[in-house]
Design goal:
Structural class: alpha/beta
Low-confidence stretches: 21-31, 67-72, 299-307, 309-316
CATH architecture of one domain: Alpha-Beta Complex
Mean pLDDT: 83
Number of strands: 12
Length: 328
């Protein structure tokens, strides 16, 4: 899709450049392809179609837009919301499968997406289940507990209930090369978590309280979404650990370790559909697509995790994540 988009841009720009005058309808170009429905399995309805919609959530969950003006891409939050709206407007959609392959992401983006799934369930009153592919960790799992049921591939990575706030102290390194920062601030803690000076014990306590608040919010969400677990059991599992899909079923973190085809069969029975049409929503339809063909909701072209690390290290603002990042 990206190559086709660049080809279109060049086809418009190059002829105009030769005449010494370029007039390009930039708004139309940057709008990108529209979201469309693609049929993956054709059902058996004669006069109407009863559909199961697969909505993909993959990659880091973020509320930030891409940085490239020539290759615009929706963030995970707005893209998933658009797909939920597509399903919301279609009365033939009788069930939704959230296909999740995500390590999590920004705390607020994960929380808003969780809320949007709950709102969708209240409005449409149809089965909504989560199917975890390769991973549903931290914010990915936070989203999954908004569903009526959670499935995961037996080999999926599940869990990592917890909060991450990244902080880097560069003052020692910068001092060695003769660089010093002297911010003018209205109060002592205005530049809390700045990477350009050591953090005081009091500031660390302030940020730890913030992390604890977000952690307790995560506990609340799992406690509400997994009625088979009591709050103390959730706390016992909320130590950041990750487990396989098989172990997650034993622990009660998911309802069943199962493959997507099994999930769709269960959902079909739950929704009372004999021969459902299975669809997905995509901006780049692929020829020969089937239920295992993913429709990416990944964010910016550049590495999201690299961007995350750079922002957390240098912009001086504490950033909270429901995110599984081994080694961090």
């Amino acid at each position: 899709m990206k190559q086709n988009f660049l080809t279109l841009v060049l086809a418009v720009l190059l002829p105009a450049a030769g005449s010494g005058c370029i007039v390009v309808p930039v708004g139309e170009l940057l709008r990108g392809p529209a979201l469309t429905e693609q049929v993956l399995v054709q059902g058996g309805g004669f006069f109407s179609e009863e559909k199961i919609a697969i909505i993909d959530v993959d990659g880091m969950i973020s509320g930030e837009e891409g940085d490239s003006p020539l290759l615009p891409q929706e963030n995970t939050l707005s893209e998933t919301k658009a797909r939920l709206n597509f399903a919301r407007r279609d009365p033939d959609v009788r069930a939704v499968v959230l296909r999740i392959s995500s390590p999590g992401g920004e705390v607020t983006a994960c929380d808003v997406l969780h809320h949007e799934v709950q709102r969708f369930k209240q409005e449409r009153k149809i089965p909504v289940v989560a199917s975890i592919g390769d991973q549903g960790t931290s914010g990915g799992y936070y989203l999954a507990v908004a569903a009526d049921k959670i499935y995961a591939n037996p080999t999926a990575i599940v869990g990592s209930i917890g909060v991450l706030l990244q902080h880097m102290d560069l003052s020692g390194l910068l001092g060695k090369i003769g660089v010093a920062f002297h911010p003018l601030k209205s109060s002592e803690k205005k530049d809390i978590s700045s990477p350009f000076r050591p953090m005081s014990a009091e500031e660390e306590q302030i940020l730890q309280r913030l992390v604890d608040d977000m952690y307790n919010r995560f506990i609340d969400v799992v406690d509400e979404g997994r009625p088979g677990l009591n709050r103390e059991q959730v706390k016992g599992l909320a130590d950041g650990r990750v487990v396989s899909g098989i172990e997650a079923e034993k622990l009660g973190l998911i309802d069943r370790a199962a493959y997507l085809s099994d999930v769709l069969d269960d959902v079909r029975k739950e929704a009372g559909i004999a021969q459902p049409t299975i669809v997905r929503y995509t901006r780049s339809p692929k020829s020969g697509a089937n239920i295992f063909t993913e429709s990416s909701t990944r964010g910016p072209l550049a590495s999201q995790e690299l961007s995350l690390s750079l922002r957390a290290s240098f912009d001086g603002a504490p950033r909270l994540y429901y995110l599984w990042r081994p080694g961090q």
